[in-house]
Amino acid sequence: MTRRLFFIPLALFAAVAAVLFWQLTRNAEGDDPRALESALIGQPLPSFRLESLMAPGEVLDGSALVNGKPLLLNVWATWCPTCRAEHQYLNQLSAQGVRVVGMNYKDDRQKAIRWLNQLGNPYALSLFDGNGMLGLDLGVYGAPETFLIDGKGIIRYRHAGDMNAQVWNNELKALWERVSREAGA
Amino acid sequence: MRWLLFIAVLWAAGAQATPQQTLVFRDEAQEQQYRQITAALRCPKCQNNSIADSGSMIAADLRLKVYQLMQEGKTREQIVDYMVARYGNFVTYDPPLTPVTSLLWGVPGAALLFGAWVIVARSRRRERGEKLPAAGQPQSATQGSLWLFLPGGALALLAAGGVWLATNGVAQVAAWQQATRQTPALLAQALDRGAVPLSAAQVQQLALGLRTRLYDDPNSVAGWLTLGHIGMMQGNAQLAADAFARALQQVPEGDPRREAIAERLAKAVSQTSR
Q: Which residues of chain A have pLDDT under 70?
């Protein structure tokens, strides 16, 4: 009986080591331990009034985004190299019929418009958040970040980092399809 | 030309400090409160800094927001709640007690109690055992005990080997060595205008090989220029700016090449993140 008790520390150690090892391999496969969970999952999109990127003076609010159909809200800026890396993939998604709304974050309007003219414009709608205050309300802590917002305007998912085929297929595609079905029903 | 050089020198000196906005406080106490609140909020981007310490963009935004909320008359709790609602409990250095965080408090105590119980139970049993007359088989338990270590030792070796196999960097080192070997060929292909343009993967390989070469021979102006060029091709303005700055350092004052390099540096710098 006592002898068996001696194995408890060993078993505990093995369990802790297994958990740490599991996380280590996930990190090796690209799971970024610095990525934070969004505090806004399940919450409605914060209310905002922002200018359109293309037409200064044209003010948009939440009703321009939420129209019963789901959308991806992509936070981007020209000063962010990763945004350039993901841009072609956003173009592809947009071409596949995914509604992508861009939020240009703490950026220079002219540079941003030039960027879209050069690299293609995947955005059905472009917001201009020059001082980053909608970004703050969304808990954005860097660019790029992509939010999946359902037809009722509820934030369902947030991906921090670049969007690519792997992220889309593994993290977002199934949810996007489900949310689209919900919107259709 | 002169101002280009000036910008380049400023940049190379790392003088990237953005002008700090001067905040005006009502009194000493309010300023003190501002310092306390910003020191108690964690920067979401840079992890182990408070927003008071961090120079990152998001920290500056959050500091400004704290200031604004204070001017609106919000209390410390309200400001912290405001940040937690947006950035989660991560953002505060004083997270609340939730089912998950209660584990942090509970497990050490539970382990301590369990250990105490084991010690007490063992000593009680020994006392009882001493009062009883000596039972049979007093020695057989220790016999062959050395062999008991064998499976444990083998298991430890096996586990260590497995962890090493799963986490070692042999593959990365091999890829790096291959990149170093292929650098001359790739470089020739990149410089030859008639040849097939390099694929993105090849450009990446070339950049890796080139950086290795420059590590061995940091005085090569042509090497730094090529690396800068690759940086621009990859859309990595930071890499390009670093490389052009290094190239500029190698070229003596008065050299006609300086102007062209400084121009490229200024262009790269203008494309880096702020």
A: 1-2, 185
- For chain B, the average pLDDT equals 83
Extract the tokens encoding B85.
């609602």
Task: Give the per-residue pLDDT at B40.
Answer: 93
Please give the pLDDT value at position B56: 87
Q: Which residues of B touch A36 (CB under 8 A)?
A: 44, 87-88, 90
Give the best-scoring range by mean pLDDT among A42-56, B160-174, B214-228, B241-255: A42-56
For residue A137, give how far its alpha carbon lies from the nearest alpha carbon of chain B (Å).
Answer: 6
Q: What residue of A is the nearest CA neighbor of B59?
A: A141
Q: Is B98 within 8 Å of B89 (Cβ atoms)?
A: yes
Q: What is the pLDDT of residue B19?
A: 44
pLDDT value, residue B264 = 87
User: Which residues make Cβ contacts (< 8 Å) with residue A114, sequence separation at least 6?
Assistant: none
Cα–Cα distance for residue pair B55/B59, rounded to 1 Å: 7
Distance of CA B26 to the CA centre of its chain: 38
A80 at interface of B, judged by CB pairs closer than 8 A: yes
Sign, CA dihedral B2-B5-B11-B15, equals negative
Q: Does B65 touch chain A (CB under 8 A)?
A: yes
- pLDDT value of position B17: 44
User: Which DSSP helix (H) or strand (E) runs through A109?
Assistant: helix A109-119
Distance from CA of B253 to the nearest CA of A (A): 32
Candidates A17, A80, A141; nearest CB to B58: A141
pLDDT, one tens digit per residue, over B105-144 is: 899 999 999 999 989 998 888 887 665 555 555 555 555 6
The closest of B239, B221, B223, B242 to B231, measured between CA atoms, is B239
Which alpha helices (DSSP H) does chain B contain, by range? 2-12, 28-40, 57-71, 76-87, 99-131, 145-167, 170-191, 200-216, 221-233, 237-250, 257-271
Chain B residues close to A140, C-beta within 8 Å:
58
Question: Cβ distance B160 to B168 under 8 Å?
Answer: no
- Compare A150 and B15 and report the one with higher pLDDT: A150
Decide if A141 and B236 are in contact by the 8 Å CB cutoff: no
pTM: 0.63
Burial A18-29 (b: 16+ CB within 10 A, else e): eeeeeeeeeeee
Sequence-ordered list of residues with C-beta below 8 angstroms from that of B227, at least 6 positions apart, any chain: B207, B210, B211, B214, B239, B240, B243
